[in-house]
Amino acid sequence: MTTPPATILIVEDDPEISRLVADFMRREGFEVACAADGRDMDAVLQRLRPDILILDLMLPGEDGLSICRRMRATDTIPILMLTAKSDEVDRVVGLEMGADDYLVKPFGPRELLARVRAILRRTGGSPARPALRRYAFDRFIVDLDSRNVEVTEADATAPQLTSAEFDLLGCFVLRPRRVLTRDQILDWTRGRSAEPFDRTVDMLISRLRKKLEAASPGSSLITTVRNGGYLFTAAVRQVA
Amino acid sequence: MLRLTLAARLALIVIVGTLAVAITLMAVFYRTALRETEAARPSPARLVALVTLIEQTPREGRGLLLDATSSPQFVVRVLGADQLPGSGAELPQLREAYATALAGRAVEVATPAPAASPRFPRLARLMAANATEIRIALRSGETLVVDSRTRLPVTPFGLPIGFGAGLFGTIVALLALLVMQRETRPLARLAAAVDRVDLSGAPPLLPQARRSAPEIRAVIAAFNRLQGRLGEMLRARLTLIGGIAHDVRTFATRLRLRVEQIPDPAEQQRAIADIDDMIRLLDDALLSSRAGAGGLSQEMVEIAALVRSEVDDRRAQGAAVDLTSAPASHDAIVLGDRLGLRRVIANIVDNAVKYGRVAHVRLSLGRDTVVVSVDDDGPGIPADRRQAMLEPFNRLETSRNRATGGAGLGLAVARSVVEAHGGTIEIATAPSGGARVSVELPVFRAG
To answer: Which residue of A has its CA nearest to B290?
Structure first.
């Protein structure tokens, strides 16, 4: 083999797991760097560019979800998530996180090796562009980066959304077909909008509902669930 | 608003009720005494006889005659024109009968004039009201005055004076009943709320009725606090189990990575299986307590696809699992926790394979539910053990021998998850004689 060894960056707060994985991967011929948390990872990324990121979901400080989201928005490094909570797996590889693959703890080293190799094979040849955050549902296409909503049908006009309404729509689009409580919606949209958001979630939702309904009559995309919250019923897929 | 204690309210209600009963009884008594009242008013024939007798009797014998005919309820006097007292209100409706009988004589029927200066004017008026005074002009130029009064205070028309009061009392008693009912309503609501307690969500706090008695308000407040504390306890337990699960998982991960160093492959496999069992147990416990504490997520789950993927996974591993599904059930959507539901299906299918060699999975659609039933070809589960199988740490073999299965959490976890979804789980007998476990889940329809 003449190709230089691939470099792995492990972001994991438990030093023992970090060491055991690193030792194993080094024996398998990889270059390995370790980081204990998000800030540590940023420092390491300053001096080297890994071919793959092995990222723990539960980290002190900035958690793995947020790091993954941040990396996805700006970078092309493939990400393998390690999750302790098996209930997060759908979201990890889904629209919200966009990780390339995941492993549930506890995992065997051979399993990890197989996944890492598979990802490198998939992404190794041509470095992918940063993933576009464009999503299609019903007759809409939402671009979370350019903050733009389009309608695919020619006869309808795209809804004009306020900033807060767009944030709300983004929150739904990234978590489709799941019941979101008022508190969760608040958590995920807070800080991004200048509007006071507290008890106005209901109002905002009814405004968004009206605008979507106007552009796509009879679609009823947002359903209210009894003593649950709100549910975005459309199937969402990522588009180029 | 006056805040009476519950005891005071109850006492008041009893007193008012008793009073109402007493007044009603009095009214009934008066009603029955009406006939006596009629008798107290002299009949026209009696008056005719009296008049005739007085006119025939010489003046000196009149005193004796008047004494003989008078009684406290029937006072007869003969007065000269100058001796006549003022009279009260005329009663023309009673006059008719007497005037016809005493043809040719002037007859006046009126209430007697009230006493000049009575100590209780109202009472005197009341007493006068039930008397009648009949004045008949005699041939001698004098006037015969007959004062008739009943023993009982009755209006001249025979209606007992207490009647209105009785009616009023009855109405008050009815109102008291309504008030009583209103007073006990918060208690009834409380009882219903206790039955409804569901610690999985935010506790439905009972509203404080502002007008309730202090005792009832105290009970409601105490109940709300209790609910809050129970919910807190459940959440604390969930946090504890979650924390333990996370840390144990970290240790298990290290252990799993170190197991690679074990040189004997057979030992290594056993160690890996042990770690897997340990984690499964932990996951089950965590899932079950999350289901109990409302920690499950809700998303739209295509149940047919989920069941199919679980079946396919097991078939890929060589297990004897087959699936028949009604076409109607293919689009059925359950609003629930994807992972929890997956665990439910996995647990019952694995149980069937483990204890009954095969799993026949069937998916069908009910009215508002989707039913997943799993039959096996094993010995079945005796009817008296079925309920116990759905409790944690209960296995058909009591040895708790881990070699033949798990910790006995599988069905208990399935049950807690299914029930948290508003569904039911049932153990029955399959046509083959084996066990049949059916899970019924409500179907979600958007809109």
So the answer is: A87
- pTM for the model: 0.64
Q: How far is B5 from chain A (nearest CA, A)?
A: 36
Strand order in the sheet with B424-429: B320-325, B358-365, B369-375, B435-442, B424-429
The 10s digit of each residue's pLDDT in B303-340 is 999 999 999 999 998 889 999 988 888 889 999 988 89
For residues B84 and B181, state if they share a domain.
no
B 326-345 residues inside an 8 A Cβ radius of A: 335, 337-339
Q: Quick check: A178 contacting B, CB < 8 Å? A: yes
Residues B328 and B427 occupy one common structural domain: yes
A63 CB-contact burial (10 Å; exposed 0-12 / middle 13-18 / buried 19+): middle
What pLDDT is attached to residue A194? 45
In chain B, positions 300-329, which contact chain A (CB-CB < 8 Å)?
300
Query: Could you tell me the CA-to-CA distances from B423 to B154, B230, B368 in Å, in that order?
Result: 71, 23, 11
What is the 3-state secondary structure of B320-347?
EEEEEECHHHHHCEEEECHHHHHHHHHH
Residue B157 lies in a domain: no
**What's the total number of domains in chain B?**
4
Q: What is the pLDDT of residue B1?
A: 46
Query: What domain range includes position B320?
Result: 296-442
Which residues of chain B lie closer than 8 angstroms to A234, CB-CB?
A: none
Provide the pairing of β-strand B299-302 with B143-149.
Answer: unpaired
| B396 in the same domain as B369 | yes
pLDDT (tens digit per residue) in A154-188: 777 888 888 888 988 988 988 888 888 887 888 77
Domains of chain A plus CATH, in order, are 7-124 (3.40.50.2300), 134-238 (1.10.10.10)
CB atoms A14 and B337 under 8 Å: no
Task: Note which residues in 183-202 of chain B have CB less than 8 A from chain A.
Answer: 201
Number of neighbours of residue B52 by Cβ within 10 angstroms: 11
- Confidence (pLDDT) at A45: 92
Taking only the tens place, the pLDDT of each residue in B188-235 is: 777 877 777 666 666 667 776 666 778 888 888 888 888 888 888 888
The per-residue pLDDT of chain B, averaged, comes to: 80
Q: Is A108 on the interface with B (CB under 8 A)?
A: yes
Instruction: Assess if residue B259 is contained within a domain.
Output: yes
ipTM of the complex: 0.77
